[in-house]
Amino acid sequence: MAETASQAEEADGKKLDLGPVGHLGDRLFGGLARGSGGLVVLIVAFVGIFLLALAIPSLADDKSSFLFSRIWEPGGDNPRFGIAALFYTTVISSIIAMVIAVPIAIGVALFVTYYSPRRLAQPVAYAVDLLAAVPSIIYGLWGILFFAPILRPVINGLSTALGWIPLFEKPPGDNVGVVFTASVVLAIMILPVVTAISREIFAQTPVTHREGALALGATRWEMIRLAVLPYGRSGVVSASMLGLGRALGETVAVLIILSVPNGNDPWNSSIFAGGETFASKIANNAAEFDSPEKTGAYIAAGLVLFVVTFLVNSAARIIVDRSAPGGRNPRRKRTASTSAAAPEGGATS
Fold first, then answer.
1. Quick check: 63 and 76 in contact, CB under 8 A?
2. DSSP assignment, residue 60?
3. Distance between terminal CA atoms of the chain?
4. Cα 49 from Cα 38, distance rounded (Å)
5. Alpha-carbon distance 84 to 43, whole Å?
6. Between 244 and 323, the higher pLDDT residue
7. What pLDDT is stored for residue 141 in this prediction?
8. CA atoms 84, 87, 90, 92: torsion sign
9. Helix (H, G, I), strand (E, B), or coil: what is residue 80?
10. Could you write out the DSSP letters of every residue in 1-42?
């Protein structure tokens, strides 16, 4: 065969030139990939070091408990500031937004992927994706001027039915800039992110899994429950954590919607009261960055938000790794392999 090929080359009078063969491209690409990954790690580390370096002097001068105090008076000779109220408002608004957005996003993704006709699926998908292009300031203005009055009957109904719970207690007055309104707007803002990623993950479910379930007599919902949802679990978790990251750090919309409580008023844990998140507090008081002590207090609050976001993403990474195919119950796999090898050991002994 080789002789025939060589004779054919000699007959044509041409030789096949493969060109220089080397690994320069592989080494170059590998170096660029490793450098890009290292650069991202360095940027995150530098941001954390910067926040920590500027926050330490103010934290050392703080005359109150930074983690458990709700007082925010960073100026003067006796600065006192704490993040308890900011942390509570940030976390509770993000949790409510996730509780509202994630089930709706999964339902929209399943509808677009497996239920709706093709001519309807594309317009619905485009409409949901366009929500991500709306600026935050538009969401804030729309939320406080148009959406908040619509939610007022919902707030009144929830406070009437569940007002005996401090979380749903309605404070006096008719305040529309409450945590609940901001949470619903945040849910709308993170909806396109979770929907788009979930839709792509659900569409990638192997055809053999879906057709196998249907061939065994499963209904469409049973096929989705047994084949699609388990396959897309890790992707949905990743999408949810991306949405949670945006909800934690959203600034402009929350700043416009939430009413800032009076410093003399007692703190209220109800979601039908006003409040401030980390991001809105820093943005709303940017004019106070007139001294290193005040600036350090706000940077310390930003450091806490940075750490919370980092921990959330780390937890999401762990959940995704454990729920990914082939990554479940490694201890069970090791136990199974050990028990399978046990008879040999027993026979040998």
1. no
2. H
3. 56
4. 16
5. 28
6. 244
7. 93
8. negative
9. strand
10. -HHHHHHHHHHHT---------SHHHHHHHHHHHHHHHHHHH
